[in-house]
Specification:
Elements lengths: L2 E10 L4 E12 L3 E9 L3 E8 L1 H10 L9 E7 L3 H19 L11 E5 L1
Parallel strand pairs: 3-6
Antiparallel strand pairs: 1-2, 3-4, 4-5
Length: 117
């Protein structure tokens, strides 16, 4: 669990399984530095995820991936899915803490979260 993936997928009604079509993007969890939660016109909730670009590229290269220039990614939720957005953010914070703050050798700050209406 080094990377967080954003994929396109669909539910196959015949098999009852989720099938993955393509990967949109991936980011190293350890490189996440900031998440902004924004309510957009009362229609959707957008989580903007910012990474430390230097750290992101170091981790990508360590795992045989190409460097990237983008350090901002977004995940959107319909406004009717506020609970899902909140749960996603909670799990992201928990996983980030496990990678960056837990244990004797990890003394990084907790994930910064900003809220904006």
């Amino acid at each position: 669990m080094i990377f967080m993936y954003n994929t396109k997928c669909h539910f196959d009604k015949k098999t009852g399984k989720i099938e993955f079509d393509e990967m949109q993007w991936q980011i190293p969890i350890q490189a996440i530095a900031l998440v902004k939660m924004i309510e957009v016109q009362g229609k959707r909730i957008e989580l903007k995820i910012f990474t430390d670009l230097k750290k992101q590229n170091e981790i990508l290269q360590q795992h045989g991936q190409k460097k990237v220039t983008k350090n901002e990614r977004s995940v959107e939720f319909n406004i009717s899915r506020k609970t899902t957005a909140r749960d996603f953010l909670w799990h992201l914070k928990r996983i980030h803490h496990w990678w960056n703050c837990a244990g004797k050798n990890n003394s990084n700050p907790p994930l910064e979260i900003q809220f904006k209406n």
